[in-house]
Amino acid sequence: MGTTELWVVVAIIGLALAFDFVNGFHDSANSIATVVSTRVLSPSQAVVWAAFFNFIAFLFFGLHVARTIGKGVVDPSSVTVAVLAAGLIGAIVWDLITWWLGIPTSSSHALVGGFAGAAVAHAGWGVLIVPGLTKIAVFIIVAPVLGMAMGFVFMVITYWVFRRATPSGVSGLFKRLQLLSSAAYSLGHGGNDAQKTMGIILAVLIAGGILDKKADIPLWVVLSCHAAMGLGTLMGGWRIVKTMGQKICHLQPVHGFSAETAGALCLYGATWFGIPVSTTHTITGSIIGVGATRGIRAVKWQIAGTLVWAWVLTIPAAALVAALSWHFFALLGWR
Predict the structure, then answer these.
(1) pLDDT of 212
(2) Nearest to residue 253, comparing CAs of 130, 162, 121, 328?
(3) Each residue of 251-265: pLDDT tens digit?
(4) How far, CA to CA in Å, does 164 sit from each of 6, 154, 161, 171?
(5) What is the DSSP string of 20-68?
(6) Please, are residues 294 and 151 in contact by the beta-carbon 8 Å criterion?
(7) Helices 3-37 & 167-207, crossing angle to 10 degrees?
(8) φ/ψ of residue 172, rounded to 5
(9) Nearest alpha-carbon partner for 287 in 155, 108, 173, 101
(10) Which residues have C-beta within 8 Å of that of residue 73, sequence separation ≥ 6?
């Protein structure tokens, strides 16, 4: 590989880490919204807490999700560095748009959509790996529904266990427990989301001829992706925190604990099975499920409906931006 080509690969890896940073920034609300809205931690304390557990998540999870993104969405033989650059641009642009609007969409699905859209623009629809995309598409629906069901059930169980306790008597307990549930969710967030960028960087290294197609993910890629996500989380996407923590339903420490615990359990299962689910969809579903235990009117369904429309649009919107980016690169002679 020539020097120019090597620098191109380095630049694309830098762009991938920039996406990981934006991912952490955009999705920090997933980890901190409940713990901030219940006032268990201040905003500055919450982002440090979440960022720490985002980073150390690599100690607890395998790399199944990264392999799904790197080799299970698009045929690796059809991937070029231009495709990867365009895909990352599509994901970053959509993340920034939705952050500005305060809409908690999925960075994961933006990445998948961008990657797929750029690849199709480059080589046609035949490059898509249908089983991998089907698994991801199914969990657009399954993740929030499962989060909602588990949030509802976990909240009901919590109510039953503490049915004889007074709210004032358990308030301190759940404030302490919510520190643990927030840490658990941040681990799941880091474990699932950081791996998606690892998969893209693996594809970059393979497309650039640095690694063999059968190669696994180097340790430096693992560490750099977790570090970039942790730094992004430290910045805190406060527009989305407000939506997640206040606009869907009113939360107290007991509700935050139940939503985070239910969401964390969903993420752990998905990560172990190599399914790149949306941490945003999962925690939103859990918050709705917890809120629904207080009655249908406790949840602001109009807000929830707006979020669902944004979720549906994420993959095609990111794919469109990525495809346009690839065509722009092609006009410059870079395919």
Answers:
(1) 82
(2) 162
(3) 788 888 898 899 998
(4) 65, 17, 8, 14
(5) HHHHHHHHHHHHHHHHHHTTSS-HHHHHHHHHHHHHHGGGT--SHHHHH
(6) no
(7) 170
(8) -65, -40
(9) 155
(10) 112, 115, 116, 128, 129, 132, 133, 136
**Which stretches within the chain are classed as H helix?**
3-37, 43-56, 64-71, 81-101, 107-123, 130-161, 167-207, 219-235, 238-242, 253-272, 279-292, 301-331
The pLDDT confidence band at residue 151, using thresholds 50, 70 and 90, is very high
Cα torsion angle, 181, 183, 189, 191, sign: negative
Contact 186, 54 (CB under 8 A): yes
Quote the DSSP letter at residue 211.
S
Alpha-carbon span 69 to 201, nearest angstrom: 10
Look up residue 189 and give its two tokens.
């967030």
Compute the distance between CA of residue 120 and CA of residue 330 in angstroms, rounded to an integer: 13
The letter for the amino acid at 324 is L
pTM to 2 decimal places: 0.81
Check if the beta carbon of residue 321 is closer than 8 Å to that of residue 90: yes
Distance of alpha carbon 22 from alpha carbon 38, whole angstroms? 25
